[in-house]
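In pairs, describe these two lines:
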Amino acid sequence: MRKLVLCSVLGLAACTPPAPPADEAAQAAETAEVSLAAPPAEPPPPDAAPPETPEAAPPETAGPASPHAILRGRVSYPSEELPAMRVCALATEDVGLGYCADTAVNAPHYELRVPPGTWILLAWPQDTGTEGAPGLLSMASECLATSGVNCDDHDFFELTLNAGETREGLDINDWYYPPEAPPLPMEPRGEVLE
């Protein structure tokens, strides 16, 4: 009887395939799960159009440069309070042509957009009850900003600008030009950029 049991056990062992290694068993289980989760794709019908392939988005390119230049800075005034100001860039070839921006009381920062060209900067106090002469961006402005001495060059600081250019730190702070200086331009009405 022992022989019969032993032969039966050996016969079963011979018929049973050997167990796969642990890694293969895990891989087989994953494959079975994937095939259960995603049924095979059906082929398209013969008269169907081929699927569209998405086109690659065109690379982003920078837009055209701005046709204007930007001027930024601060305006000061020789008093304890800074009045509202009208800051203007005037064309050197025609000082009647100007682009202006208004500032509020105690708001010293300004920004102007102007076409390419050569410009001078002036600021007129607003709502002060008196008509005052303008402050200038002059050759002396940097000297005055650093509390320098002998800041005597009150000629206009001319700015030649190209399209798309930005200039910053343009402080209009020269209120101390001599009375015998050449007459200054009048406050322009202010052009509008298109």
